[in-house]
Amino acid sequence: MTQGSYQKAAEYFNKAIQINPNNSNLYASLGDAYNKMNDYPRAIESLAKAVQLNPSNADARSNLGHMYITNGQRENAVKQMVRIRELGRNDLAEQLEGEINK
Length: 102
Prior knowledge:
Layout: H1 3-19, H2 24-36, H3 40-53, H4 58-70, H5 74-86, H6 90-100
């Protein structure tokens, strides 16, 4: 996808969030679109909201952890990794741990 495609996707996700503001998956998808546009602060904000709405969303936690690493927030990434392990998603936790330990 092109940068413009991710921008358009972000616009659609924002419209969908206006209709359904408690949908964790919409915020997670919005965070992914922002990530693809290299808009890391907004990606983190959206992914954090996804996790707030659904603390059991291990995929959103994993993506949030990767965003924290990208932004030099190692301690926050470790917190996400620990929570992902608690959720039983060792596959995602191990991937995140590999990034943390680079």
